[in-house]
Amino acid sequence: DTPEKLEHMLEELSNAPNYAFDTETTAIDPMRADLVGLSFSTVPGKAWYVPVGHQEGAQLTLEGVLPQIRTLMQGTKVGQTAHNANYDMTILGNYGISPGKVDFDTMVAAHLLGRKGIGLKNLAMEILGVEMTPISDLIGTGKKQITMDQVSVEKAAPYACADADMTGRLRTILEKQIFTRGFGNLMATVEMPLVPVLVEMQRNGIFAESGTLGEMSLGLDLQMK
């Protein structure tokens, strides 16, 4: 939560072979969510949390930290790992950050391997034997549910760091399984290059002729009747 700590983190991340990252936000929809913080991890058991949007707690300003984070993440020398990179890249894109080398997505890998429970917490329990803190412990449920920016930095930091840490640990295991099963080329040349394409498609949307769609709807309705 200080510029000095941030500088140390950036140096370690820029010199690592790869790092895992995750975003904490205010909503499930990435186009409507605000960035609350970012977490990073280079090795098992070590992670950093950069709080930028909490309503309480010591943190860094978004304006002050984004230029340095942007420089780091848009680099192409260090591999980047995410769980559901589509979401994280969309969020970061809202703030002018385009990660330069997201070369592994643990959720995509789990899907390729045929796993049914591909959520981070499910995978952490099944593969690593680690029970992660559920998000409901921080934000609650139902009518009393709050958003991540209302959670204190002290409570959010361990949760966010665990997300990045477990993502990095899962990569080590899932990547070996991907190559063992013969999915290495598919992962590297199709699945991962497709992620930023999907992100851009979702951001741009498509043109649709409402009149034509209305005629189609009427026609289908008549057929159904």
Annotation keywords:
225 residues; alpha/beta; five-stranded mixed beta sheet; 9 helices; globular
Largest sheet, if any?
Answer: 5 strands, mixed
Q: Helical segment tally? A: 9
Unreliable segments of 5+ consecutive residues: none
Strand content: 5-15%
Mean pLDDT: 95
Apparent shape: globular
Structural class: alpha/beta
Gap between N and C termini: 63 Å
Please explain how this structure is put together:
- The chain is an alpha/beta fold and 225 residues long.
- Helices cover 52% and strands 14% of the residues.
- A five-stranded mixed sheet has the order 3-2-1-4-5, with helices on both faces.
- Strand 2 and strand 3 form a beta hairpin.
- Helix 1 runs parallel beside helix 2, helix 4 runs parallel beside helix 7 and helix 5 packs across helix 7.
- The model has no long low-confidence stretch (mean pLDDT 95).
